[in-house]
Amino acid sequence: MPELPEVQALVDFLDERMAGQAVGSLELASFTVLKTVDPPPQALAGAPVDAVRRHGKWLDIDCDGTHLVLHLARAGWIRWSDSLPSTPVRPGKGPVALRLRLADGAGFDLTEAGTKKSVAAYLVRDVTEVPRIATLGPDPLAEDFTREALAGILAGRRTQVKGVLRDQSIIAGIGNAYSDEILHVARLSPFALAGGLDDEAVDRLHSAIRSTLVDAVAASAGKPAKELKDAKRSGMRVHGRTGEACTVCGDVVREVSFADSSLQYCATCQTDGKPLADRRTSRFLK
After folding, report:
1. Structural contact between residues 199 and 148, judged by C-beta atoms closer than 8 angstroms
2. Measured CA distances, 154 to 81, 143, 202 (Å)
3. What is the Cα 183 distance to its own chain's centre?
4. Which residue windows are coiled coil (predicted)?
């Protein structure tokens, strides 16, 4: 799933190409991808693109006050073309869910791989009309996301820190992959209770959040949209690297699997050398 760094790179990529251009049309290839009915897709025709922004992991294309808001879910992506096919998209054919065509013929397809369709598009006059945007937590790259702000978020929470980092209503933009990376940099167990972290651990966690995301945004900057997925994978230290050597200590990277996801960590760096039990309710193998 694209997370904050990749979405920010997509925002920069699209804003550079679309801002100041006029929309030609918004075409739907999947009738379920658009979650709103008013304004209709035809309302974008002729509207200038004022800006492309990010809200957590959401893309927001502001077209003269009407916002096309996109969530890429697990398997969605943006496929840009300087010259889109002149023929309209065909509903139900291929991975394309939605096409935004600019007046000059350029634009992008919103695509989704696989059979489970989860990408979502909203056309709204105010982005807070999108329920999940209205409930987003603070952005971890915002200036006011200070160490003290993070301490306030963590205080009293009897929730594993991995879950806190992934919860969009608590902190916006971090998902499964970057939470693994952040916890590895912070030298924290993913199963540590958020409210139980001491001052030094909170310091490390705040520093790791900022440095990991800033570095990932910088690494993604300027890359074409089609290269961002590979860039994300190649930059991971532990996520997706089960069985490989930790780049910090040389220990093997381990995995905990759940029903629909998994996490990766280094026992030497994060859990005092103790492997985590591969089940959600346990803390450590004894």
Report:
1. no
2. 43, 18, 9
3. 17
4. none
Residues 6+ apart with CB under 8 A from 199: none
Q: Record the pTM.
A: 0.92
Tell me the pairing of strands 23-28 and 49-55: unpaired
For position 222, what pLDDT does the model report? 83
Q: 24 CB contacts (<8 Å, ≥6 apart)?
A: 45, 101, 102, 103, 104, 105, 107
Q: What is the DSSP string of 35-67?
A: ---SS-GGGGTT-BEEEEEEETTEEEEEETTEE
Query: What pLDDT digit, counting tens, does each position of 124-169 carry?
Result: 999 999 999 999 999 999 999 999 999 999 999 999 999 999 999 9
Are the C-beta atoms of residues 284 and 276 closer than 8 Å to each other?
A: yes
- Chain centroid to Cα 31, Å, comes to 24
Q: What's the token pair of residue 228? A: 């961002």
Between 54-58, 174-178, 275-279, the lowest mean confidence (pLDDT) is in 275-279
pLDDT tens sequence across 249-281: 999 999 999 877 899 999 999 999 999 987 544
HSE-CB of 150 using CA atoms within 13 angstroms = 27
